[in-house]
Amino acid sequence: QVQLVESGGGLVQAGGSLRLSCAASGLTFSWAAMGWFRQAPGKEREFVAAISWSASATNYADSVKNRFTISRDNAKNTAYLQMNGLKSEDTAVYYCASRLGVNGAPNYGYGVWGQGTQVTVSS
Q1: For the chain, percent helix, then strand, then coil, each to nearest 5?
Q2: What is the DSSP string of 37-85?
Q3: pLDDT tens-digit series, residues 26-35
Q4: 8 Å CB contact between 18 and 8
Q5: How many CB atoms sit inside 10 A of residue 2's CB?
Q6: How far, in Å, CA of 117 to CA of 6, rounded?
Q7: CB-count exposure of residue 17 (10 Å: 0-12, 13-18, 19+)
Q8: Do the strands 18-25 and 32-39 form a parallel or antiparallel pair, or are they unpaired?
Q9: How far apart are CA 55 and CA 57, in angstroms?
Q10: pLDDT tens per residue across span 58-101
Q11: CA gap 27, 47 in Å, rounded
């Protein structure tokens, strides 16, 4: 059974930082592209960042470029999202997701999702 578990969310002031983690089990993690998505209240879920299975490619939404960094540790079956310079508009539930059988870091087509972790940025 494939399982993704996010952690690291919380309440932070604007301008602050958080690091989210996504621990994977039940899949060959080193073969999977990993993505982070978020959903704010009343809005659709949106793509945030993705990283290829080898970490050779990354992809970011324009809204988080130069503020967020996605990474992974295949030895620990864990993906990360370092979030710096947080803004109130970053407030959302953040989800990680996995996608097998793809090269690169796509922003769609993810089949397995975590339960999400809340990030709240106070202004």
Answers
A1: 5, 50, 45
A2: EEE-TTS--EEEEEE-TTSS-EEE-TTTTTTEEEEEETTTTEEEEEE-S
A3: 989 999 999 9
A4: yes
A5: 15
A6: 6
A7: exposed
A8: unpaired
A9: 5
A10: 999 999 999 999 999 999 999 999 999 999 999 999 999 999 98
A11: 22
